[in-house]
Design goal:
single chain; alpha/beta; Rossmann fold; 2 domains; 7-stranded parallel sheet; 45% helix; nucleic acid binding
Length: 470
């Protein structure tokens, strides 16, 4: 047994690697920059965890979400790894200071792009040996950096302070253009690239056009209440997440809503309950998803047109991690494409906002914190007109991405084939349960909830009988 397989068995309890894992890990150990694109459920965490045990120094993992960090920290601790910490807003000032003073004692340090701008943290980092840096969910550099979280772009300058440190970029989806943006931002030097097929044969694609919103809601509630979960229902509105849950609870479905305006502790609790099987359905905005380690998600439902093919692939990829048959359903009306445009443009600054930032030093009161942060970043780099031109281009690109996905759902070509073509991949083998266009047995994919309810009744009856007897 070679050293890598030995550690795989000792530390992680596996006897063999999945496709691509060993090759990627070997490149990391050799100190090379690496871009790895693997679908959700293909073991991306192992790619940065295992090499750490064969290399000196600390691994710094830059992660986009607090919940994702906390989940990965808990996973490592459950494996017996004590030298792990997440440096984020969950820590008090005193806790952060304690961690900074003992930074060399950690093997894994999880942090956010924003924390990389903290001078105290950077002084502490400069005093320890860094084995390599990990950009987890690296597509966020392109997806969020330019228009939502500019601190993702500041990673580029931060990495220049560690010129000899290699970088491992991990993501589930990335077009060729996104890969180029990742390379440029992370200063990658002739990186080793591994691209796994993005096809998920055990996920069937279902798309249904309905006449109006009322019919759409009725369809969704009917689907959830008559078929098995676990599942995730994605919607664009925080209010809708709560409305769906209210109706599902009335019908006896164990459901909870999840959106960005909730308290962080509440979000973490709901995520844990879902992962532990205490909830069958989550009704969520796209704030829910990354870091969800639940193997048996059977259904993903969208009640809207997502903002891009990449976002859609990320969200449906949370199903079928156990390799069993699942289904991704999307229901829409003709008005949903305009609604998608409206939602996508909400967070972008208008020309008046840009002028206000460039002509005024303090605009915190007039603009949202997010808009102010975005524009202050570009103010350091671009002129007022260049910033206007940039956001005009971003808006046009967003509209095109939404229209591209909408067109994909409306035409008569295989959905699976079109999704893969977007990432320059050809469909090699069509699964039995493919998509609604191909009519490959979609109705055989779903399990009736009535069967599950009968099993639950039998189990509850046996449990009550045991309590009486013993």
């Amino acid at each position: 047994m070679d050293k890598l397989t030995e550690i795989l068995k000792q530390k992680f309890g596996h006897t063999s690697f999945r496709d691509g894992q060993k090759e990627i890990i070997q490149q990391v150990i050799e100190g090379k920059d690496v871009i790895a694109i693997l679908p959700t459920g293909m073991g991306k965490s192992l790619l940065f965890q295992l090499p750490a045990y064969l290399m000196k120094g600390t691994v710094v993992i830059v992660s986009p979400l607090l919940s994702l960090m906390q989940d990965q920290v808990e996973q490592l601790k459950m494996m017996g790894e004590k030298r792990v910490v997440a440096i984020n807003s969950f820590l008090s000032f005193e806790q952060k200071e304690s961690v900074f003073q003992n930074l060399s004692g950690y093997k894994f340090i999880f942090t956010s792009p924003e924390m990389l701008q903290n001078n105290r943290f950077n002084r502490a980092l400069s005093s320890i040996q860094i084995a390599y840096v990990v950009a987890d969910e690296a597509h966020c550099i392109s997806q969020w950096g330019f228009d939502f979280r500019p601190d993702y772009l500041r990673i580029s300058k931060w990495l220049q302070t560690f010129p000899k440190t290699s970088v491992l970029a991990l993501t589930a989806t990335a077009t060729k253009k996104v890969v180029q943006e990742i390379k440029r931002t992370l200063h990658m030097k002739e990186p080793y690239e591994y691209v796994h097929s993005l096809d998920r044969p055990t996920i069937a694609y279902e798309v249904k056009q309905l006449d109006d919103q009322k019919e759409k809601v009725a369809w969704i509630l009917g689907r959830i209440t008559t078929t098995n979960g676990p599942g995730i229902l994605y919607t664009q509105s925080r209010k809708k997440t709560e409305s769906y849950v209210e109706e599902l609870l009335k019908k006896g479905i164990r459901a909870a809503f999840y959106h960005a305006k909730m308290e962080q502790d509440d979000r973490v609790l709901i995520q844990q309950q879902f992962q532990q099987g205490k909830l069958d359905w989550i009704c969520a905005t796209n704030a829910f998803g990354m870091g969800i380690h639940k193997d048996n998600i059977r259904q993903i439902i969208h009640d809207h047109i997502p903002t891009s093919i990449s976002s859609y692939m990320q969200e449906i990829g949370r199903a079928a991690r156990d390799g069993k048959q699942s289904i991704a359903s999307l229901v829409y009306t003709n008005s949903d494409v305009e609604q998608a445009f409206y939602v996508a443009m909400q967070d972008f600054p208008e020309e008046a906002d840009i002028k206000l930032v460039y002509q005024t030093d303090d605009v915190q009161i007039q603009l949202s914190e997010t808009t102010t942060r975005i524009l202050n970043y570009w103010k350091e780099i671009l002129s007022e007109q260049e910033t206007m031109d940039l956001f005009y281009e971003i808006k046009q690109k967003k509209r095109m991405e939404i229209q591209k996905l909408f067109t994909l759902f409306q035409n008569e070509w295989c959905i699976r084939e079109q999704l893969l073509n977007n990432f320059d991949e050809q469909l090699k083998e069509r699964p039995i349960n493919c998509c609604t266009v191909c009519s490959y047995g979609i109705h055989h994919v779903l399990t009736e909830r009535t069967e599950q309810k009968e099993e639950e009744k039998q189990l509850n009856w046996k449990n009550r009988l045991n309590e009486l007897l013993y």
